[in-house]
Amino acid sequence: MTETRLRGAREDRARRVIEALAGPGAALRADQETAVAALLEPAARVLVVQATGWGKSAVYWVATALRRAEGAGPALIVSPLLSLMRDQVAAAERAGLRAATLNSSNFEEWNTIEAALTAGEIDVLLVSPERLANPSFGRRVLSALEGSLGLLVIDEAHAVSDWGHDFRPDYRRVSDVLTRLHPETPVLATTATANARVTADVAAQLGSATLVLRGPLARRSLQLNVLPALAPITRYAWVARHLPDLPGSGIVYALTVADAERLVDGVRAVHGPGYPVAAYTGKLDPDTRARLEDALRANEIKALIATSALGMGFDKPDLGFVVHVGSPPSPVSYYQQVGRAGRAIDHAVVALLPSESDAGVWDYFATATIPDPQQMDRVLDALADDQAGEGRSAIALEAATGIRRTRIDLMLKQLAVDGAVERVDGGYRATGAPWHYDGAHYDGIVATRRREADIMRAYTRGERCLMQLLTESLDDPEAAPCGRCSVCLGHVPDGLGEPVPPDTARAVAGALRSQSQVLEPRKMWPGGAAGRKGRIQPDLAAEPGRVLVFADAPEWAGTVGAARAGDAQAIDDLAGAAVAALSRWREQWRARPEIVASLQLTDRPAPVEPVADRIAEVGRLDRVTLPVPRGPAPGRDASGAQEAAHWLDAITVVGAAAGAVRGRSVLLVVDESGTGWAVTVAAARLREAGAAVVLPLVVHRPA
């Protein structure tokens, strides 16, 4: 039987490492010591499922230090996020270990790091699961480590399982590493968010002899609150009203990038432009993310208003609050996000601001990653046409199959995980292995996600203890009422449940309605777009444009629909906002508009004509209506090439319209465009008709 205690020199070294990490007098917990002791045995497989803040990383730092001291090779840690890698490198150095990471943000350092690794000068190498899928990384690094790796660590291991809330196909590459390991290399997997089914799946992937160490998941430091359903703009106003009163600094989660960015603007509309909040989303470059994370850790800002891009890996022990403007679709992912708070303090506030509109987001995520067998077959057929076997890029596959690029990227990862395709320097190529759609398996995944959505509905309704609901969703056998959440108390404490003052909501809505989103012009034609290819020529391109209403912007809730139905006030609101947007935009114009051209792309009623009329009236501009495009618009699943090809055939600028725009600066007002391809084509047609400049204004851009 494996010894569960550390003794002698091992015990002394472990104590020095844990004190370096956590301070004088710190000691390993019993389960931590059991895990470390197990990992010192040949061929060990250990899965640790413990609450956020329990100290899972201490297990692999201590185990690495002990194994290195006994002559073992370096540890390889697979981590999901750059922010986590930065934290882990710093923690490793505190533990007396030499750590390095290979990721997209430090490409210029790769050669130096790889040379140091080969020379035995690095104790810990951290990589992302996506790096494991890179063929050159496999040739250069993994091959060199195969026989000498001292420890493999899979952090956030729930992502290995497609039953997990955050499944990432590239994480399955870890199984490839497992098969290439020396048989005696120990493996550690850690996560805070695995229910019984995910735990069993991950343990099975590690091996039949996996030691599973699972502890209670309730967090006594978290005071969970759920408020009654609020109107979208009222949620923004709630954040603006209560943010200064929340303890310390924290995170406000939003479901979309647009929500995060608008919420920052809403808060600053109430508290002033210098109020210390910032948006944190997947759009930011790594350096900006790191700067914002450091600012939050140093309490230089009150809150990061973030998407799920700020999740696994961010560590601030004294984080005082987590607020969700909209609920994630899974109680497991919600538990993971709120677990950022209260790690090293006795009390942290957690609040969920639900809305009826959240269910639409849940429905999307339930099926977003499920493969479509017909689309998979189209991709495989396109790869089979690669006679040279040099690989085809995702861009080429989009043109060949008519499937959107983002979908292609996900499908290629899934096919690679299943062994049907492989990544090569030229893109991807088919391996010849058959691919089978396991319908029963995927039906089970969708059913599980929908059951999780039902749990979140129960949570948002406050049907019973909130902490108990969350920990039960993770199959915690010790789940019990916490006695301190808003359900157990019977009210939302500290005044957080008080109604939002109407003037606060008006201030937020007014500020957001006064803004518009930049519509960046497309620069390249998609492959296969009716003979158009390559860069869009400057004499056919649109100028940067503006979007009046983006997606389900809360400040415009119901307005676009009402305007389509002919509501005079809604139409007047949109027209007034359009005029205001033009006033702010005019400093960036290459030329002042001389004529307003309206274009209705949808086949349902739209407010584009009265909006264009108002702009022309206020600006004293000429006015023209472009012909309605021919044929039905492409569906949401159409590729960029299909969309561009359709609009090139459907949009015309002829006759009187062509004569009216010739030689003039045109403001193009479009009712609705999601991807922007229709606007790109309309601008090209106007330029072909002789327009000198085209400035697009889109009334509504769906998400």
Automatic annotation (TrEMBL):
Catalytic activity: Couples ATP hydrolysis with the unwinding of duplex DNA by translocating in the 3'-5' direction
GO molecular function: helicase activity
Organism: Tsukamurella pseudospumae
Source species taxonomy: Bacteria, Bacillati, Actinomycetota, Actinomycetes, Mycobacteriales
SMART domains: DEXDc (SM00487), HELICc (SM00490)
Domain of life: Bacteria
Pfam families referenced in this protein's UniProt entry, alphabetically: DEAD (PF00270), Helicase_C (PF00271)
Family named by the database record: Belongs to the helicase family. RecQ subfamily.
Family matches, as SUPFAM superfamilies: P-loop containing nucleoside triphosphate hydrolases (SSF52540), PRTase-like (SSF53271)
Keyword check for Isomerase: yes
Name of this protein: DNA 3'-5' helicase
Occurrences of domain Helicase ATP-binding (ranges): 37-212
Catalytic EC class: isomerase
Keyword list, A-Z: ATP-binding, DNA-binding, Helicase, Hydrolase, Isomerase, Nucleotide-binding
PROSITE patterns cross-referenced by the UniProt entry: HELICASE_ATP_BIND_1, HELICASE_CTER
EC number: 5.6.2.4
Domain Helicase C-terminal as annotated: residue spans: 238-391
